[in-house]
Amino acid sequence: MKTGTPKTDIGGNPGYVDLFTPKLVTVLREGYGLAQLRADAVAGLTVAIVALPLSMAIAIASGVSPAQGLYTAVIGGILVSLLGGSRFQVGGPAGAFIVLVAGTVQAHGIDGLIIATVLSGFILMAIGGLKLGTYIKFIPYPVTVGFTAGIAVIIFSSQIKDLLGLTLSGPEPGPLLEKLPMIWAALPGIDPITVMLSGGTIVMIVGLKRLRPHWPGMLIAVAGTAAMTAVFSLPVATIGSVFGGIPSEFPLPAIPEFSIDKVQAVVPNAIAFALLGAIESLLSAVVADGMTGRHHRSNCELVAQGAANIGSGLFGGICVTGTIARTATNIRAGAHGPVAGILHALFLLMFILIAAPLASFIPLACLAGVLAVVAWNMIEKHAFATLLRASRGDAAVLMVTFLLTVLRDLMEAIVVGFALGSVLFIQRMSKTTAIASHAPFVAEDRADREVGAQAMPDIGPVTDPDIMVYRISGVFFFGAAASIGSVLDRIADTHRALIIDFAAVPFLDSTAANTLVGLAKKAEGRGVQVILTGTSHDVRRELFAHAIKPPLVHYEQTIEKAVERVRA
Which of 166, 192, 239, 511 is an S-S bond match for 186, by CB 3.0 to 4.6 Å? Predict the structure, then answer.
């Protein structure tokens, strides 16, 4: 099937329609046959096996029924893949939303949650439609690592009760500092059978991950504990005893009862859903790009996420976003395109219609064990440790974001973290300007015949098809990391050696360093040699803190010496 000529605007850029054309259309235009369908079917089934226990566990931890988690995965999975701007993105409920969803249910009830979910969908569609999705990339790397780790801590703390089978003296508080004393007081009432099931679930998932990484560890653990509970009639809380099981039919769309006052009350929750959903989905899409070498369209993806949230709310589901774990599983399973995400949702729908009664035997302790593993995996432990070592400024942004997420509020953590990151950037800029006052931040144009105008001569690599030199000029920080990273990524695709000159870079931050880590690892996998030249002491110290050093990359003092190294 042939592709049409893309429509462009007057400036030569892609037209509005092209920017919002779903990746599914692109894949079908490329040609789609039985081989591609087979690959997508295998990947879709693999992702469905992972999504089945996760969707129910996330829903229960969020304070809603497990059926609502499955409805979310079905509707979200279909709409995100059908309309999205990422080739491999898989949508559904995400652990990052547990805190926000649970708080919304406690404050406004299920109807309030559904209204907030639908409103967040309209907000996401507006953000994408106005092409504001690009600005999400301006969130500094320490902020994303900090709030993700904070969310993981909150998720784990919310599962302690079900992990240990505790009976609390009253309703479980949401804030961590109020929750921990109540859990401590209930510790003498630990239930050994519950601990056996939750501990066995964790051991089984972790053990299979190491011994049989291609086996569906979560599903095996859930099925095993459910079978044990049913065969031995174990006296523990199950989906059937607490929620009455899962309905064997899919609900029809319905508009919840609402009023102007109710809508106004949940607007802050809707904004929080939209902001976190945008961050999560675009992070997931970036991860998918890094794994495959493809490129997503962020604004198209946000429009799809918005439509998915509206659809999920109308079917009684909760918030939808792109999920990193399921998207990565989709890629590793050999997906060809968005059809895999659609098929994963259809497989989940088949489970609801055919095998839902079996879910009644799943013990809540087992699902708590699943979420404990999810929480542990959410923490980017290496990145967290690296940022603590990198610089005091990045460490401060990381820890403030982390602590505010755990002890205060997620949105407050993101806002304060972003503000601190911006202040840190300004401070670094003022410090750099003071040190290098003889070199203006923006160099003036000079004639070629002026003295010094040929300080960076063309030395030949531009005529060598195997070598590319790229000079970065100015501050390499989180605001420029995405655009510079995409340019370097394209260059690394077509050359044997990539020389990146840092002679005109006064400093770089952790987000820029993380971008270079991804580039260098991708280049290493493709046999492209990366050489960094002209790095100052401060720049090299930041790079070394992020493990950007030999043999991953090589350093030379000048471009000339780097070219000699490549040609030697």
Answer: 166
